[in-house]
From TrEMBL:
GO cellular component, one term: plasma membrane
UniProt domain ABC transporter: residue ranges: 20-243
Protein name: Putative ABC transport system ATP-binding protein
Matching PROSITE patterns: ABC_TRANSPORTER_1, ABC_TRANSPORTER_2
Keywords: ATP-binding, Nucleotide-binding, Transport
Gene3D superfamilies xref list: P-loop containing nucleotide triphosphate hydrolases
The organism of origin for this protein: Streptomyces capillispiralis
GO-annotated molecular function: ATP binding; ATP hydrolysis activity; transmembrane transporter activity
Transport is among the record's keywords: yes
Residues of the signal peptide: none
Amino acid sequence: MRFPRRRAHLTGPDADTPVIRLSGVAMTYPGPPPVPALRPTDLTIGRGEYVTVVGPSGSGKSTFLNVVGLLDRPTAGTYLLDGIDVAGLREADRTALRGRRIGFVFQSFNLLPHRSALENVNLAQLYNDTPRSLRTAAAEEALAQVGLAHRIDALPTRLSGGERQRVAMARALVTRPSLLLCDEPTGNLDTATAESVLTLLDDLHRQGLTILLITHDPNVAVRGTRTVAIRDGHLTELAATHA
Ligand SMILES: Nc1ncnc2c1ncn2[C@@H]1O[C@H](COP(=O)(O)OP(=O)(O)OP(=O)(O)O)[C@@H](O)[C@H]1O
């Protein structure tokens, strides 16, 4: 499966439209006392970039992820996702946009334990435009893409940690999202398994996928082609790592 530079469906952006453009985006939790968890931030992520966000505990990584992932509304600034100003959207439209354009991968996998790998991946297609008759094939293709073609009928409890994370990645990819948003994707994995997941992310990036990965681990952060650091809610661009 390749990730088209130009998205086919309805209001899909062209290749030059950044996937993410944040202008002065900030988040202050109301409190009391108010907590300025994300200071006014400008950040543009172009199509096909692999950006990592690194920062210590409490620096604002989850706050940033929740805003970018359309899980929380920022308290200031403008956020364009695929050129769409998300501030004006009603909640149902934000949910639909999130379901179509963003694939999430979490540290804890978040799979339904009593559903097979295939069913877990299939459930992610509630909001996409794939005709119902083609959804199973799309889910099988996504599982094959992460190297799990032979395990599609397995329950998560019968899979290793690395395999579970691959199912989660297939679930994130099946909608062909504009952005893969990863939150500590290797946090629950041993070193060798973590490396295989990071290698898969490298492959997906080479295929054109835009990736935003949040981590506290500098060794993971260097896998991105661009790294930003977050500290006390301030985002700063670090030097480019590898191409
Ligand atoms: N709902 C909330 N209400 C008030 N303050 C919050 C809320 N959520 C987070 N904070 C505060 O905002 C700051 C940033 O928190 P955040 O969870 O974004 O950090 P983090 O980098 O993700 O931390 P960790 O790596 O430990 O998960 C912290 O000072 C935290 O205490």
